[in-house]
Amino acid sequence: MTTDLEYKSAKILIIDDEKGNIKVLSRLLRNAGYDKILAITDSREALTAFNGFQPDLTILDLNMPHLNGLEVITLLNKAMGNVYFPILVLTAQIDKETRVSALEAGASDFIQKPMDPFEALPRIKNLIEICLLHKKISYQNYILEQKVMDRTQQLEESRLEVILRLGRAVEYRDNETGQHVVRMSHLCAQLGNEIGMSERDCQILLHASPLHDVGKIGIPDRILLKPGKLNEEDWEIMKMHPEIGAELLSGSSSHTMQMAEIIALNHQERWDGSGYPKQLKGTEIPLEGRIAALCDVFDALLSERPYKKANTIENAMAFLEEKSGLFFDPELVTAFKKALPKMRRIVEQFKDHPEEINDSLKIIRLVQHNAVKAS
Prior knowledge:
Elements: H1 4-8, E1 11-15, H2 19-31, E2 36-40, H3 46-53, E3 57-61, H4 69-80, E4 87-91, H5 96-105, E5 109-112, H6 117-172, H7 180-194, H8 199-208, H9 221-224, H10 232-238, H11 241-249, H12 255-266, H13 287-302, H14 313-322, H15 330-338, H16 340-349, H17 354-374
Parallel strand pairs: 1-2, 1-3, 3-4, 4-5
Helix pairs in contact: 7-8, 7-13, 7-16, 8-12, 11-12, 12-13, 13-14
């Protein structure tokens, strides 16, 4: 419900070339309690005055020089688009044709000259109330939209956190430690940016790549945690993890899950066709899979394992160059090297802390020990 204070706070714009009419109407409005009034006599200034004053009601004479009332209404409607704003037309011509023309142009109501105060004030109040209600509804809609956006953002953040945690859980089963999937995903997004992927696709890549090894969930611990070299039979089982991961991620309508499926299936393919599971070669391998393959290996080389020390960034980069055209897309290797200072900052930003590494290694070694005993 609109309060009396809201009515009296309404802004009213008067456009009339006759100063006498403006004087009479302004006095009537002020006596009724309206004090936010702007009046102009030159219709060519209508749009400027309207934009600057932002009135809740515009009272407009139809018969004016330069731009008549219908032309002013058309001009304001064009400028305001779908925003509601009431226009009260002053006219001595009250014939049907004039009314229809004004209504078609966008007029809300009419006051006939000479003006009857007892009729004019209720019409003015009604139009102001409609305008204020429109504003309230628009504001409520804005608040609801913000709440929906906030809730959607919260759900998206929760979903992405689950993806990241699942990715890290998978890595813990495979001798990975600390922040590997976090670094790897940021390296992927940065490399995607370097080669001209859209910002949206880079964001999807950031959130999809942590699930590249999710298929290892389906690999038995006796194989995944085996401390020594895998025999041929075990290796064939290990090579199933890309297809297992793709199957787990398939069928989703989410763009993130769809890209995660592509990455899971293709991140073990090699540029020369010696990878698995399908021995794809060159650009047969989807771009997302090529990016993930490179960034996964790069960060794995930097990461400490129970069986090896961490490599330096320079050594890791040298390995990428050595395997360029064999394991990795040469263009991606070139782009990665060009962006190496940025990649170095990512590695530093998400580096493992010593205590986290030690705790992770202890967990891994304990799981390995139990897996060996169980086998």
